[in-house]
Design goal:
about 450 residues; alpha/beta; 20 helices; 16 strands; globular
C-alpha cells in the first residue's frame, strides 16, 4: 500500500506539470538519412517528429504544428561549413518563437559554431552521428512539453537564480507547484549544483515560511551523536547532560526540516529516522514519553538513491518516505547560456566586494572558455573562479588567461556515460598540479575535502 500511495502521488504531480502541450519536435536537416533516423528514434520516445529538409519551410511548420522544440542543422547547401544558415534561422526562431527551445545539430568540426550558437540563444547541441543515449539526454533536458523559457528577474524568484535552460525551467515549475504542499521532497544533483539554495527557496514558498528552516548536515554528525543531536536529551541522560536539550527535529517543529546528504546515514540510523517520520513523534534520550513533532521534510543527496537501494546501502521504505516528490538539479554544464548569466552575477557580486562595484565584462575568449568547460564543481566552482578573476583582473575586461581553466573536451555524443570520466580526469589533473595537496585540490574544484575524498575513493585515484 505504501508503494501504491507513493506512486499515485508522484503520478498526480507529474501529469499536473505536463499539461496538454505539444509533443512535437520539428527536425530540420537536408540529409534524408538523418531525418529518417531521428524520426524513428523520436517516435520510439513517444515524441511526434516532423522532418523537413529545408529551413525555408520553418515559418509554415511553426505556425501549423506548434512544436515543443526544433532540432536545427547548421549547414544546408552543399559545401557550406560556415554555419551562417543555421545562425540565420536560429535568430529568426529566437525573434519569432522565443519560447520554443532550439537544439543545434553539428558535425564534429563544428563544435566552435555550436558554442557560438549557445551564446546566441540555442538551448543545446548534438554532434552527428547522433546516438540514442545523447538524444535521450537532450529529450530529458527539454521542458516536459509545457515549459516556456520566459525570462524572470531574480526578485520574482526570491534571489534564487534558475536561468532559462529547459532543465532549470522544469525545476522552477516543480518547486512552485509542490512548495506550498506538505509533500516530502527529495532534491538530487551533483555537488555544487545549488541544492541547499533551492531548499531555502522551497521553504520560502511554503506555508511554513514563518517557521524555522533547520539545516542538518547528515554527513557531519557522528553516529554516536546522532540520537542526541536529532532527538534531544533529558537532564542526566548521560555524563555532561546537566540540562535537557531539544534536538534538531524538535527545533524544526512548525517549520521545515532539511536533511542534507541523507544518503550518508548508516542503515541503523536510517531505521531510527524512519520511525520518527512514520509516527511524527520522537523520544528524547533519557525520557520515556514521546513528543509529537509537526515538520515538513525536505532531503537532499548527491548520490543516486535508487542505486544505493539496489546495493543494500539505503532502505527502500525510507526512500519512499522522503521521496514523494523528486527534483533533480541539472549540472552546470547542461544549462547552456545560463552559465554566462551566472558568471556575470558572480562578477558583479565580487566586484562590489573587492572593486567598489566596478563593472567587469568577460572577453569573447573568456566566454568561449566558460561555455566549453566541463565544470565538475558546478556552480560552486564557477563562483570560486569568478571571485579569483575579479581579484586578478587589472582592467575592466576579464581574459581567458585569468580564468585559468584546464579544458577537458565535453564528449557530446553520450553525456550520460562520459561525465564521470571527465570528472575523474579533472580530479587526477588537479591532484598532479597541486602535488597531492588535497586542501588546494578541493579549493580549486570548489568542493569540500570530504567530497573530494569520496570522489577519489569512487574513481580509485
Amino acid at each position: 500500500m505504501e508503494i501504491i500511495k507513493h506512486c499515485i502521488i508522484k503520478a498526480k504531480v507529474y501529469f499536473c506539470c505536463m499539461g496538454r502541450e505539444s509533443r512535437r519536435i520539428v527536425v530540420v536537416d537536408d540529409n534524408e538519412g538523418v531525418g529518417q533516423t531521428l524520426s524513428l528514434m523520436l517516435g520510439q520516445m513517444s515524441v511526434e517528429p516532423i522532418w523537413i529538409s529545408t529551413p525555408e519551410r520553418l515559418p509554415e511548420m511553426m505556425g501549423e504544428s506548434k512544436p515543443a522544440c526544433v532540432f536545427l542543422d547548421m549547414n544546408f547547401r552543399r559545401g557550406m561549413v560556415s554555419g551562417n544558415e543555421g545562425f540565420y534561422w536560429l535568430k529568426w526562431l529566437r525573434g519569432n518563437y522565443a519560447e520554443v527551445p532550439v537544439v543545434l545539430m553539428t558535425a564534429y568540426g563544428d563544435i566552435d559554431l555550436a558554442v557560438r550558437g549557445i551564446k546566441e540563444g540555442a538551448t543545446d547541441f548534438m554532434v552527428k552521428p547522433i546516438e540514442r543515449g545523447r538524444l535521450m539526454a537532450v529529450i530529458d533536458g527539454l521542458p516536459k512539453w509545457s515549459r516556456r523559457n520566459i525570462s524572470r528577474d531574480d526578485k520574482s524568484d526570491g534571489g534564487y537564480f534558475y536561468g532559462n535552460s529547459p532543465g532549470m525551467n522544469l525545476v522552477r515549475e516543480m518547486v512552485e507547484r509542490v512548495a506550498p504542499t506538505m509533500a516530502s521532497i527529495l532534491v538530487t544533483g551533483d555537488n555544487g549544483t545549488g541544492k541547499s539554495a533551492l531548499v531555502r527557496r522551497i521553504h520560502e514558498l511554503s506555508k511554513r515560511k514563518a517557521g524555522r528552516l533547520v539545516h542538518v548536515d547528515m554527513g557531519a554528525i557522528a553516529d554516536t551523536l546522532f540520537e542526541s543531536e536529532l532527538f534531544g536529551y533529558a537532564k542526566g541522560a548521560f555524563t555532561g547532560a546537566v540540562t535537557g536539550k531539544a534536538g534538531l527535529i524538535e527545533e524544526a517543529d512548525g517549520g521545515t526540516l532539511f536533511l542534507d546528504e541523507i544518503a550518508n546515514l548508516t542503515p541503523r540510523l536510517q531505521s531510527k529516522l524512519l520511525c520518527v517520520l512514520q509516527e511524527r513523534c520522537l523520544t528524547r534520550l533519557g525520557e520515556t514519553k514521546p513528543r509529537k513533532v509537526d515538520i515538513r521534510l525536505v532531503s537532499a543527496t548527491s548520490a543516486d538513491p535508487e542505486r544505493l537501494v539496489m546495493e543494500g546501502l539505503f532502505r527502500r521504505d525510507l526512500l519512499y518516505r522522503i521521496n514523494t516528490i523528486h527534483i533533480d538539479v541539472p549540472p552546470l554544464c547542461r544549462r547552456g547560456s545560463d552559465i554566462l548569466q551566472l558568471a556575470g552575477k558572480f562578477l558583479n557580486k565580487y566586484s562590489r566586494i573587492y572593486c567598489d562595484g566596478k563593472r567587469l565584462v568577460l572577453s569573447d575568449s573568456a566566454r568561449s572558455e566558460i561555455l566549453g568547460y566541463a565544470w565538475p564543481g558546478n556552480v560552486r566552482e564557477l563562483e570560486h573562479v569568478m571571485e579569483k578573476a575579479v581579484i586578478m583582473t587589472d582592467g575592466d575586461v576579464v581574459s581567458a588567461e585569468v580564468l585559468g581553466l584546464r579544458q577537458i573536451p565535453i564528449n557530446t555524443e553520450n553525456v550520460g556515460t562520459t561525465m564521470a570520466d571527465m570528472e575523474r580526469d579533472m580530479i587526477a589533473g588537479r591532484i598532479e598540479e597541486h602535488g597531492g595537496n588535497m586542501t588546494l585540490v578541493a579549493k580549486s574544484l570548489g568542493i569540500s575535502r570530504q567530497t573530494l575524498y569520496n570522489k577519489i575513493k569512487r574513481y580509485g585515484l
